[in-house]
Amino acid sequence: MTIYIDNHDFHYETENLVRMFFPNEKLDIVHEKPVNPQQPFVVTSMMMENGKTFVSAEVGINGCVKKGNAEVIKEDEPFEKTAERTLAVCLYGILSSVTGVKQPWGILTGVRPIKLFRRISADKGEEYAKKYFENRLLVSHEKTELSALTEKHERKILELSKPMSYSLYISIPFCPTRCSYCSFVSQTVEKAKKLIEPYFELLCRELVFTADIAREKNLILESVYIGGGTPTTLSAEQLSVLIDVVRKNFDLSVCREFTIEAGRPDTIDEKKLYAIYNGGVDRISINPQTLNDNVLNVIGRKHNSQQILDAFALARRIGFQHINMDLIAGLPTETTDSFVSTLDKICTLDPESITVHTLALKRSSKLTLEGAGVRTEGETTAAKMLRYCEKKLTGCGYIPYYLYRQSRMEGNLENVGWSKKGKEGIYNVFVMDETHTIIGCGAGAVTKLKTPGTESLVRIFNYKYPYEYINGFEEMLKRKEQVRAFYDELS
User: Fold this and answer.
1) pLDDT at 302
2) Which of 4, 241, 275, 352 falls 20 to 30 Å from 482 in CA-CA distance?
3) pLDDT score for 365
4) 446-450 and 457-461 strand pairing
């Protein structure tokens, strides 16, 4: 599909709005006519006439061409923002008419709708924010109410952060197998086994190096998150050493949360869980994704649902008081009934938090490479699953405490973290809101340095793959010196 941009700078918004309706199409952005009428196309324009500004949109699909236009009326926001939104609303109306699809999040294409809702609420109040979402951004009433409720719970967590606060992320980029929907840089243990030991030794060195900077700059550590990949691909001995390195080198005196993802039950055993528990980790994730054995097989998991239940029971027996469980709505071959069965079983376990993701088909995932496409019909199976989640989890005493979105999601939906009150995963909120600095260690980790009181972020990228991390380690430590320079400049 060709997108023609005429006399405006709203390229990003236009492309992403079209992508919501045609996620499986290759999109070409052009600035010169003519558009081939025999091929699918979108034209967006802005023009001045008699002192007024107008926008227009035209969509041609399968020989059917529809057009629309609107005047940009100055409102209580910068004129350019109003013009961009007016064009998006105009284009949305045509795309919705052509495809028969109404997007649950309207014209919103960003990852962080709750951050936007909070900004509007802080400026003009919650009721205004709700009306803005529904009337100006065309967000459904259901998603607007979910945004308002999530923002209310998020706000309490954000208030915990101080100007010099930060969170620590540690990457273990190895997994027992690669799931078919996965696009992360994690590698299978079978292929990368020889890299684990040298990677682990260098990771511990990076942590010590990073801790020295944090201590020197008097940074306040609020949360620690060890993710991946699957951290429990490490041995019990390695997990003990890793936790010990964190505890001995970082000031955890006011740390509110220490999480390790123990996501895959085929990597969990009693020895590893005791190593984690005895190290003082207070939150773990055991991630089923589904309790349907057929679906587990389809997505490339090498374990069954009983192993998930056994791992959960073992973690409880050892003493873990905060267990998170992840589910994915919209997995291949998963039906609404089997998803409902999974959620009902999970709720009987009574985990402290449940994160419900919507399947996102990233371009580098096995599913996408094998030809799977994002479903965009008006009421996707994933949408039905999420609707049941909201009803069921609310009834079981869970609250939505963070929410984010990704590109190429089934039904253009969302991911939501649900928890019992007081059991929210605060790292999830801090990282998604970009509240304070996140210091990342390990392959694929990104450090985001936040200037307090602003939206300014400075990013420092670690090498992406374990072999790059190992080979370029000394150069990467030089990059980390930017953390020290950043806080020197702040002070």
Assistant:
1) 84
2) 241
3) 53
4) antiparallel
Diameter of the chain by CA atoms? 76
Per-residue DSSP letter, 414: -
pLDDT score, position 75: 82
Residue 238 in any domain: the answer is yes
Q: Are residue 86 and residue 178 in the same domain, yes or no?
A: no
21 φψ region: left (φ > 0), alpha (ψ -120 to 50), beta (else): alpha
Residues 91 and 187 in one domain: no
What is the pLDDT, as a whole number, of residue 123? 95
Which amino acid is located at 96 in the chain? S
Residue 174 is given by DSSP the state E
List 439's β-bridge partners, or say none: 168
Q: Are residues 87 and 175 in the same domain?
A: no
Are residues 87 and 230 located together in one domain of the fold? no
Complete DSSP assignment for 100-160: ----TTTT---S-HHHHHHHHHHHH-HHHHHHIIIIIS---HHHHHHHHHHHHHHHHHHTT
pLDDT at residue 77, as a whole number: 84
Domain span including residue 363: 157-483
434 near 457, Cβ under 8 Å? yes
Q: Considering the entire predicted model, what is its pTM?
A: 0.93
Q: What is the pLDDT of residue 376?
A: 61
Nearest of 202, 195, 200 to residue 476 by alpha carbon: 202
Asked, as a colleague might, if the bond just before 229 is cis with ω within 30 of 0, I would say: yes
Whether residues 177 and 88 share a domain: the answer is no
SS3 sequence of 73-110: CCCCCCHHHHHHHHHHHHHHHHHHHHHCCCCCCCCCCC
Residue 148 lies in a domain: no
Q: What proportion of the chain, given as a percentage, has pLDDT over 70?
A: 93
Q: How far is CA 41 from CA 19, 66, 444, in A?
A: 12, 11, 37
Residue 393 lies in a domain: yes
Contacts of 488 (CB under 8 A, 6+ apart): none
pLDDT at res. 289:
94
- Which residue positions in the chain have pLDDT lower than 50? none
